[in-house]
From TrEMBL:
Source superkingdom: Bacteria
Organism this protein belongs to: Agromyces soli
Protein name as annotated: DNA replication and repair protein RecF
Protein family membership: Belongs to the RecF family.
Any Pfam family the entry gives: SMC_N
Name of the coding gene: recF
Subcellular location: Cytoplasm
Gene3D superfamilies for this protein: P-loop containing nucleotide triphosphate hydrolases, RecF/RecN/SMC, N-terminal domain
Keywords for this protein: ATP-binding, Cytoplasm, DNA damage, DNA repair, DNA replication, DNA-binding, Nucleotide-binding, SOS response
Length: 421
């Protein structure tokens, strides 16, 4: 699959933009702050329903506008799909597929992209939420229905936390809060599915992660992923960052891990049973703090190099390579199980952080993907094999078309009011 045409209206610093693209590599080049990343950010949003730079949508709408429109024509063989997304300052976002209204959460079913950006260094060095988001975005691209499961889990979690806070304020004990059992049942059903999906994904990532890391670094540093589950006794600090539960003969186990019980921490026990046992063991502490202390919202995945946590031990270069290898591993999984071909691979300002050898090795590793979009402030940072097509960006404008641009792909005409319908 590749993006044949990208149209933006009032997105970030673009009042209007039209960009025709073809298979192969395209470099978007321009000084910092001109809008290169904004273009690829819009493509990434269609696939993940989120920005890799901000948590909300307000910043994506150009100042003074009430909504932004992203329109992309996707091509796979002889098939064409026109995806349109309207981001609104007020009210829900709206989407269309081939001019027919669809739910916004349906878009990742058709748009598959993997975007790597400088912000991805936080996957290695940042908080657990960054790593959870990385896994969840990939899960949704592979199985869009999980977006609904995640949304339902978040809703139940908020309602359960509200009940816990209310009980704390009123001084109610566990024996007086029978309604909590109802929310527990729903939380466990949804949460167990998310945990199992993440565990399966982590296992699938192992092989392509090792291959991708070696292709970039040309060294065997043994990159690996280890799930850290709060339902199995991982203890959350005050900053909500889980750490693995202590291992030993039981004497060293934390009070919370002991409360959960040995049956709950046994991998042979179904996830739902372990989750339910964890909630029972933590109920007193949850009532004291007014917050849910176990579940996929508090899990983490430990990134290891040579058996040591990458966070705290890996150098800047190793951390950068690990994060990039994770994105390439994600692209490989999407490539394996997608009926629409390769995902669009986006490298946002990546080559400036790599030495010459790693730039060349990365260029070789991604050369087989159907479409690769690269942003760079300095064209000389991009390896020559990726510079066949160059687009210059200046102050929110595409200032010149590439000399070897592909022939225009016709897009069904529609006025702006129809696009906003």
């Amino acid at each position: 699959m590749h993006v044949a045409r990208l149209s933006l209206t009032d997105f970030r610093n673009y009042e209007r933009a039209e960009l025709e693209l073809g298979p192969g590599a395209t470099v978007l080049v321009g000084r910092n702050g001109q809008g290169k990343t904004n273009l690829v950010e819009s493509i990434g949003y269609l696939a993940t329903l989120g920005s890799h730079r901000v948590s909300g949508d307000q910043a994506l709408v150009r100042a003074g506008a009430e909504s932004a429109i992203v329109r992309a024509l996707l091509v796979h063989g002889d098939r064409q799909l026109l995806l349109e997304l309207q981001l609104n300052r007020q009210g829900a976002n709206r989407a269309q597929l081939n001019r027919s209204p669809v739910k916004t959460r349906e878009l990742p079913r058709y748009a598959h992209t993997v975007l790597f950006a400088p912000e991805d260094l936080a996957i290695v060095r940042g908080e657990p939420g960054v790593r959870r988001r990385m896994l969840d975005e990939l899960l949704v691209q592979r199985s869009p229905r999980l977006a609904g499961v995640m949304s339902d889990y978040d809703r139940v979690l908020r309602q359960r936390n509200t009940l816990l806070k209310s009980a704390r304020a009123r001084g109610l004990g566990a024996d007086k809060l029978t309604t909590l059992d109802i929310w527990d049942e729903r939380l466990v059903a949804l949460g167990a599915e998310l945990i199992d999906q993440r565990l399966a994904l982590v296992a699938e990532l192992a092989e392509p992660l090792a291959a991708a890391y070696h292709s970039i670094v040309d060294a065997d540093h043994g990159p690996s992923l280890q799930p850290v589950l709060s339902i199995d006794g991982a203890v959350a600090d005050d900053d909500d960052e889980p750490r693995p539960a202590p291992r030993g003969d039981g004497a060293d186990a934390s009070a919370e891990a002991s409360a959960v019980g040995s049956a709950a921490t046994s991998p042979a026990v179904p996830t739902a049973d372990r989750f339910a046992a964890a909630l029972r063991g933590l109920r007193r502490k949850e009532l004291e703090r007014g917050v849910t202390l176990a579940g996929p919202h508090r899990d983490d995945v430990l990134l290891l190099l040579n058996g040591l946590p990458a966070k705290g031990y890996a150098s800047h270069g190793e951390s950068w390579s690990f994060a990039l290898a994770l994105r390439l591993a994600a692209a490989e999984l999407l490539r394996r199980d997608s009926a629409t071909g390769d995902p669009v691979l986006v490298l946002d300002d990546v080559f400036a952080e790599l030495d010459r050898l790693r730039r060349e090795r990365l260029a070789a590793a991604i050369g087989g993907y159907e479409q690769v979009l690269v942003t760079a402030a300095v064209l000389e940072d991009v390896p020559e094999p990726l510079t066949a097509t160059i687009v210059h960006i200046d102050a929110g404008r595409i200032v010149d078309a590439p000399a070897n641009a592909p022939a225009a792909v016709p897009v069904p005409a529609a006025d702006e009011e129809e696009a906003k319908a």
